[in-house]
Specification:
alpha/beta, 2 domains
């Protein structure tokens, strides 16, 4: 274990957890820490990472938690000895700091990145604000370059490269800490079809919202219109391959949308036939049955979703296989980041364990709306495959998701923080009472 400042005090059984994790890392490349909220998992993770003598990449589920990691390193007395950088995605830097619509034509992109030496950045935290204040370079490119030499890189897990979907360009090996691993392993989803429910709970109506699937078909049209979406140096004939791919993918998306979308009027008529067509008892008015049929027309939609989910498990959806196999990220290079991200997400969901999910929210006066949505969801995350190139990996969370890999050595604390806090409070109250 590293030497810690005299002012630092372990809480709970943190020292024992550090010792156990270090022992497990001696035998395993992947270790998981399970501990309750407010236990101090970040402190444990930082001590373990500092003990590895490897470049450290600390990924979080939000940028807002990054200052807490930096403060933990300061508390441990190590911040002033490290070169730390905080890279962000290009689109986020452009929107939140550069305040421009597009990076195309930005003068900062023409400024060459100087030769960066780690010793020049010891004791500094190089983030977007630092780059803008101290250089004339593109903040995104500068942070990407310094990330290759920094002792610690602290960033959002989305910046880890992803060969099959949306991801960053971060080039790192060494030791990885993944905070809140349950967030990184959450399944990806995309809205396919949306309906609204009228004010009295009657009648489904097709939502006017622009759906991602419709937008994706429009993006395919953009790809076909560009003269050559590839960067310089690519042979022109590759555009013909791209045009064929985009046309075929566009047709497949339309087929999927036609399969999932059901005309609400037809759904209601089918439901009325089901309900009113049955024998009616004397005390039930047929008009009430029609009303009931209209209010429950979404049940037809729900049953269609079940049928399509069964179809997904058969060879029917193998029509997408060739399209997915022929996809590569260079095809999307000329698209806007948000358009590129949408297509990458869609490709990812179609590729991994897709299924449809039915969601109904009933109309209420307080909410002033009701709606029905059908989502396409993947039950699998490829985050663990994306971080395989790191030498060692530590995953931390209050609860580990069921879809995490089985080859992880788990270290778990049974400390009950709430019980301890209650006991400490009760003890203080008792001592205060005795002193009185």
């Amino acid at each position: 274990m590293i030497e810690l400042p005299l002012s630092f005090k372990f809480r709970h059984n943190q020292r024992e957890m550090v010792r156990q994790i270090l022992n497990r890392l001696g035998e395993n490349d992947d270790v998981g820490l399970i501990a309750p909220t407010d236990y101090g998992k970040m402190v444990v993770a930082c001590i373990v990472a500092l003990s590895q003598r490897l470049p450290v990449t600390y990924v979080t589920s939000t940028y807002q938690s990054i200052p807490e990691v930096i403060e933990t390193l300061r508390m441990l007395g190590k911040k002033k000895r490290l070169a730390i950088t905080v890279p962000m995605g290009r689109a986020m830097i452009r929107r939140s700091h550069c305040k421009i619509e597009s990076c195309k034509g930005c003068e900062k992109q023409k400024v060459a990145i100087p030769l960066l030496k780690k010793e020049d950045f010891i004791g500094k935290v190089v983030d977007v604000e630092w780059v803008i204040k101290n250089t004339d370079c593109c903040a995104y490119e500068f942070l990407q370059n310094i990330s290759k030499i920094a002792d610690w890189v602290i960033t959002h897990y989305a910046n880890i490269p992803n060969p099959t979907g949306r991801g960053g360009r971060l080039e790192r090996t060494g030791f990885l800490v993944s905070d809140e691993i349950d967030k990184a392993l959450e399944p990806r989803d995309m809205l396919v079809v949306s309906y609204t429910i009228s004010r009295k709970g009657f009648h489904l109506e097709t939502s006017s919202e622009q759906l991602p699937m419709i937008k994706a078909m429009g993006i395919m049209e953009k790809l076909k219109e560009d003269s050559n979406p590839y960067e310089k140096g690519h042979p022109d004939h590759e555009y013909e391959l791209l045009e064929r791919w985009a046309t075929y993918f566009q047709k497949q998306l339309k087929w999927l949308l036609d399969l999932v979308y059901k005309n609400p009027i037809i759904l209601e008529m089918e439901r009325i036939d089901e309900v009113v067509g049955k024998e009616v008892s004397d005390d039930v008015i047929e008009k009430d049955l029609v009303k009931y049929a209209l209010m429950t027309a979404s049940e037809k939609l729900k049953s269609y979703v079940k049928i399509i989910n069964l179809m997904i498990k058969t060879k029917v959806f193998e029509v997408f296989n060739e399209t997915l196999e022929n996809f590569n990220k260079d095809m999307l290079r000329k698209l806007k980041p948000e358009d590129r991200g949408l297509i990458e997400d869609l490709i990812y969901i179609l590729k991994f364990n897709k299924q449809l999910y039915f969601k109904r929210v009933n109309y209420s006066p307080r909410r002033n709306e009701g709606y029905i949505e059908i989502w396409m969801v993947t039950g699998k995350s490829n985050f663990q495959q994306r971080v395989e190139h790191f030498d060692k990996r530590l995953y931390i969370s209050a609860t580990f998701p069921s879809n995490i890999g089985k080859d992880i050595a788990i270290v778990k604390t049974d400390i009950d923080i709430n019980a301890q806090d209650f006991f400490s409070h009760a003890t203080r109250e008792h001592l205060s009472y005795c002193q009185r």
